[in-house]
Amino acid sequence: xxxxxxxxxxxxxxxxxxxxxxxxxxxxxxxxxxxxxxxxxxxxxxxxxxxxxxxxxxxxxxxxxxxxxxxxxxxxxxxxxxxxxxxxxxxxxxxxxxxxxxxxxxxxxxx
Amino acid sequence: xxxxxxxxxxxxxxxxxxxxxxxxxxxxxxxxxxxxxxxxxxxxxxxxxxxxxxxxxxxxxxxxxxxxxxxxxxxxxxxxxxxxxxxxxxxxxxxxxxxxxxxxxxxxxxxxxxxxxxxxxxxxxxxxxxxxxxxxxxxxxxxxxxxxxxxxxxxxxxxxxxxxxxxxxxxxxxxxxxxx
Amino acid sequence: xxxxxxxxxxxxxxxxxxxxxxxxxxxxxxxxxxxxxxxxxxxxxxxxxxxxxxxxxxxxxxxxxxxxxxxxxxxxxxxxxxxxxxxxxxxxxxxxxxxxxxxxxxxxxxxxxxxxxxxxxxxxxxxxxxxxxxxxxxxxxxxxxx
Lengths: 111, 180, 146
Description:
Number of domains of chain B: 3
Shape of chain B: extended
Low-confidence stretches of chain B: 172-180
Oligomer: heterotrimer
C-alpha cells in the first residue's frame, strides 16, 4: 500500500511531463518524479522498530535500518539539483531567444 | 506505518496542485511543500542525513526556479487545453500503474528488508573505517567510486550550464562585425 | 528599476548578524561528518546558501566582490582535484581508494583522517559549483535590459 502511493506520485509527475505546454511545468514534473524515485529507494530499506545508522559509544548494535539505500539516495538528491539547474539554464536561454516559454511556438529554427 | 501513508497523501495532493494550477507562483510554492514533507518523511523513516540534505537542496532549487521565472515577468502559464496530449498522458499513467501492481506483490513486505550486504557493513563498519556514522563510512570508504561518479556528474552539469549562458563571445562578434 | 539594490533595512541588518553563524554551522557539519549526520554534501550546500543569502539581501555586486566567478570556478576545480588525489594516494598501499591513514581512535574528531579530508574536498566542490550556477542564471539578464 505504501509502495502504491509512491508510484502514484511518480505517475502524477509523469502526467506533468507529458501533458503540459509550458517548459517550467515540465521541469516541475521532472522534479516530482525525482522525489518519488528517491522516496521509493528509502522505503525499500526501512525496518520496523529500527534505529538510525549512527553508532554511539555507550549503546549496543541491534536492529539498524539498512544504510546502503540511504548512501545511494544521498548522492542522487544532489545530482537531481544539478540537473534541475541545467534545465533551468536552458529554459532561460530559450526565453531570451524566442520570448516565450510555450513549446508549441518554438518550432522555427533560427540560426 | 500510518504516518508514512498520511505524509505520502500530502505529497500527492501537493503534486496535483503543482501541475494543474495556472498561477506560476502557486506552482512553485506547492513544489516547495512536496520537498518539505519529503524531508519530514525521511525523519520518520530514520534517515537524518537525508533529511538535512533534502531540506537545503529544496531551498536552493526553489531560489533557482523563482529567479528564472518570476523575475522575467512570466507569472501565468498557458490558457488553452489540448485534449490529445492530456488523454495520452492519462493513458500512459494508468498503463504504468497497472503494470507495476504485480511487481509490488513480488517485493518483500514493507518493513522486513533482506539485508545481505548491509549486515556485513554494519558489523565491520566501525572497526574497518573508524567512522561512527555508517552512511558516511559507506559512501566514502566502501562505495567511494559512486562518490567519484557523482563529483564528475556535478562538474559536467555546472560546466554545461555555464557553456549555455555565456555572453562574452556573442557580444564581441556583434561589436566587431566586419573585422572579425 | 532605479532603486537601491537588495532588500529592506530589516533584512540587511539580520543578514549582517547571522552570516558568520551560518558559516560556522556549515563548517561544523562538514568537519563532524564521520560522527554525526551530515557530511560533505550537506555542509557544501549550506555554504553555497550562505553566499546566495548575501546576494539576495544586498544585491549581486556585494556578493560578487566577496567571491568572484573566477575564484568560485578555481575552488570547484581544486576540490575535484583534491578528491582524485586522495583516491590516487591509495596506490601506495595496494589498490585504488585504499585509506592508509585512517582508523585512529573511534568516536574522536580526528579519528578517520582520510574520510575527513574527503569530506572537506567534496564540500568545496559542491558549494562553489552550486553558487556559480545561480550567479550565472542571475547575471544572464543584466546585459539585456529586461
